[in-house]
Specification:
Elements: H1 3-16
């Protein structure tokens, strides 16, 4: 997993919460 991939995942969750 690249940093970009992880950041995108975290950003998605953060936006949903």
């Amino acid at each position: 997993m690249s940093l970009h991939e992880v950041t995108h995942d975290i950003g998605s969750v953060a936006h949903e919460r």
